[in-house]
Amino acid sequence: MNDQPFDSAPRPGQCLRTYLRECGWFGVKKGCDAGDCGACTVHVDGVPVHSCLYPAVRAEGRSVTTVEGLAAPEGELHSVQKRFLDAQGFQCGFCTAGFLMTTAALEAEHGTEHDDGKLDDLPRAFKGNLCRCTGYRAIEDAVRGVQHTERPRAGAAVGRSPAAPAGPRVVTGTARYTFDVKVSGLLHMKVLRSPHPHARIVSIDTSEALRVPGVRAVLTHEDAPATLYSSARHEHPGVDPDDTRVLDDTVRFAGQRVAAVVADSERDAEEGCRRIRVEYSQLPYVVDAEEAMAPGAPVLHAGKGPETRIARVENNVAAEVHGEIGCVDDGFAEAAVVYEETFRTQRVQHASLETHGCVAYFEPKENGAGERLTIRSSTQTPFLTRRAICALYGLPEDEVRVVAGLVGGSFGGKQEMLTEDIVTLAALKLRRPVKLEYTRAEQFYGATTRHPFTIGVKVGARQDGTLSAIQMRVVSNTGAYGNHGPAVLCTGVGESFAMYRAPHKKVDAFSVYTNVVPAGAFRGYGLSQVTFALESAMDELARRLGMDPLVLRERNIIRPDEHVLSPIGEGEEDLHIASYGLDQCLAVIRRAVAEDHSADDAPEGWVTGQGAALTMVATGPPGGHYADAAISLRLDGTYDLAVGTAEFGNGTLTVHKQIAADALHTTVDRITIRHSDTDAVRHDTGAFGSTGTFVAGKAVLLAAEELAERLQGFAARYTGVAEHRCVLGSETVDCAGRTLTLEELHEAAHTDCAPEAVSAQGHWSGSPRSVAFNAHWFRIAVDPDTGEMRILRSVHAADAGKVMNPVQCRGQVEGGVAQALGATLFESVRLDERGTVTTDAFRNYRLPQHADVPRTEVHFAETDDALGPLGAKSMSESPFVPVAPAFANALRDATGLRFTELPLTRDRVWLAIDQRARAQISPTETPGA
Fold this sequence. Notes:
Distance between the termini: 57 Å
Largest sheet: 7 strands, mixed
Radius of gyration: 28 Å
Number of helices: 24
Number of strands: 29
Strand content: 15-25%
Strand order of the largest sheet: 6-8-4-15-12-13-14
Low-confidence stretches: 925-929
Structural class: alpha+beta
């Protein structure tokens, strides 16, 4: 392996992937264990293979190369590794080794007798490799040798595109994700899950499981605390209902945890699970949200009181919001045109390639007085997870440390505590290190999904196109537990309503319990679902008025000097339009429409159409989102920056270094950064709600600016020169001609017992908040005979304020568009009639591949936000939101059919076209499908 001899025999049936990792080659990743994602790709005698499918015994006598062995023995990077660095051909980096190994093998055979042209046909070459983050453009640019990264000069990093700090480790396979560590004495956990949608556990017999050699413990509800909590992580826990137990004696969905087995190996733990005998008393179940609210429906959380903050236990309503501005009845009475329809969005899986999981172990305290528990987790919220663990098990916070390495994707899914609670239970019981790593199947039926919404929307407009009223009834299926249910509901009906001006607005919205896999936080956080309905309705309203849909939007969008106001009103007091680029976004779409000739590329006989959609997204959640940062001058004259926020492809580590470098008039390579560790800073709410730059970046800016002032002030005192004549540089301070190196300054500060002169902290509360704007436009072609759809052109306009790192920000947009296209066209977590997930692998849950994703033209508005750090705003979630309605509007324009349910699959499109043809109805007469 990698030119080193290994002679240890693999276990019977062991795949090459696990064998390699046990030998320390952590660059080989687990994404699916089914040969679907390519993250585990290695070379066997120069041939790329998916090591999760390759029996380890077959490697006997062969040469195996992992990404760690791709570089030359003396350390020089392989040309492919260099190009991926130069092009920033990754975001979270979890899939990168697979793409590197595939590309390197293709290049090795290029021009030989084995060359089959794949290098010139990347959609075919990468059909066995998945990326959830990038949208593939950056990967293709890396293969083609396109240079994107820069080396900005001192004090000029913001607005440029320096490389990601983890880049060299990502491309060499030395970046450490959650499970890329060796822990001595590690035990493995496997979870037994319910086969029933609703049942009471009568008894659990664990005796046979405990007889399995290697099994150390079996945990049931009798071992778990009775405390109720929410798996959702928010700064204010009261946002979510407390309706969950670590292990419960009642199961409420097929896939819920029933028991956990801890053993010396995963194999032993799995065998232990198979031997547990559970007696269930099955209960009535309900999977439809409307039926769950009806009288006589099974009650999921009977007996839970008001202290759990469940809105209406007896009606399965986890949360509800109602509000009205003006009187919608009057508004519709004065409307010349009214459009009313019901829209539906589906469950979508986050599908981050690194699954949920954590490792808990004990380590000595710094003062040597005993041990503390350390949890290494794939999480967006280390500090909130620590707080929840301490509350659940009655531990002081200094007894628990939570740390995240690099996180292999999230998209909201890791704003949950899904593994840390039960692993902690086992670690505390056994006083041994314990690991739980979800399988890909568990991600589908044991984690969370996007909330499926049913949105009844009614909009009215006067003859001149000004809106008179907007009304919505929204029902969100939150699944068996209410984690994120209330907040997703409120966010969904917040900014979506507020983006358009109308004197009369009304909303009635419900988050409803059902006996299915719980929903949770997902990119867009409710806005993508509601925006799909509202932007589709706006298009239909324009058609009925005989008006250009863009003109209708321009006539009714919120203005720069107006208040952000929705019918619910809650949480909007600190929300401001601190910069306004929506007009520029619309202008981009206007230019795209005017200059477009892509319809000429449509195959003969296909119909074409174009459509657009807009969105407005807050730069953080209401109620406060806190971040601390600490920065100090090091002995060698470089800087140490500590932040609490996690890095999972969102690019915050790069941006934070850029912000600090500019404030300190230095270069990014002179700043090292520590992150996502409860030991690093005082507190950080977490990397969610698009806050990594807007909130945590502001804390970094405040800390760095304070340190710059302190360094100049101390240099002035030390040299006796006036402070205004001391100028901080990249490696020195110039004090009126006297040059003082930063190393000398550090030494002087510590000699004078003034360490505070070379360190500083920053804090930001996340309030007041601003808003970001996005617009998307498609030109598509549709084959009426087959339902096949092709994107001829894709244009996205984004108002991100000051764009801190153009390459990374463009990557966020492209990745958001690609993920949204999956949710628009084919992704759907399907359930059977009992609510059991039937799509539990990538091969039957279709993710966008390279061939599915067009190159999107990305344009940024030129704005400078008055609230964000150095004028920046958020841009992680918002690109996802307008994609589905823009595509649906283009499909309506092409076919004359209004599709009201996602996903817009090829068979659904063909069936609607065929049914219309059979009925001999002209497209202009067809109001919907």
